[in-house]
Amino acid sequence: MGDRPDQRETEIAAIRAGIAAGARVIDTAEMYGSGRAEDLVGEALAPIDRQQIYLISKVLPENASRQRMAVSLDASLRRLRTDYLDLYLYHWRGNVPLAETVAELQRLQQTGKIRSWGVSNFDIDDLKELWQLPGGDQAVANEDLYHLGSRGLDYAVLPWQREHQLPLIAYSPIAQGDAWGHHLTTNETVKAIAAQHHVSIYQVLLAWVIHQPQVLAIPQTSSVAHMTQNVAAADLTLSPAELTQLDQAFPAPTTKQPLDIL
């Protein structure tokens, strides 16, 4: 979002519609559109009470050092038109030592420019390494790709995060439709459950992701109609029988899987 000037007003309207419908978390990053997404979010939030929004952004690996992170953060804050982030995520691992990144995140938290920090695209070994570092257990979230058609996290990552009370932020929770051969929107089980509840297929996919404890879904849309449907998915409760049917159609892995990343 933010890459097409002709879509700017539509995208701003979608963000504001989501907030009007009850959404309170907005997830963005300095990488998205090389800052243009943050700028769009900043404009969309301008007339809205900042205290009502939980704002997340992310720092690129090459900027996750003691020398560069503060500069990146200040640039993100300027684009977002705010003086603090509720959550600042290390977008994915790069060449900067993890201990240095964690130390700088903690330092920035002490300045008040970020209220909390976390990580993104961390696999089980990354999380275990993080937890062994001084202050590493102060991370408040891990953001990974997770949806009904990509359940690799179910084998090790999600159980570990639950044990350590570390919430998951699930990105791409509707798998961008049928991208990468997941066939979620054409699956007969998904379609039947959607029809039973008189909701869209995408609402079923979102409801499946967030039925689990300590899992937040962050679907992206530039459409007002889709935005309000996404928020309404929080009101959809899948029955135990329906969850079993979805597990049978898209079984959890029985061995460790490579971490899916977009």
Automatic annotation (TrEMBL):
Residues 7-249 form the NADP-dependent oxidoreductase domain. Coiled coil: none annotated. InterPro entries: AKR, NAD(P)_OxRdtase_dom_sf, NADP_OxRdtase_dom. SUPFAM superfamilies: NAD(P)-linked oxidoreductase. Gene3D superfamilies: NADP-dependent oxidoreductase domain (3.20.20.100). PANTHER family: ALDEHYDE REDUCTASE, OXIDOREDUCTASE, ALDO/KETO REDUCTASE FAMILY PROTEIN. This is Aldo/keto reductase. The lineage of its organism: Bacteria, Bacillati, Bacillota, Bacilli, Lactobacillales.
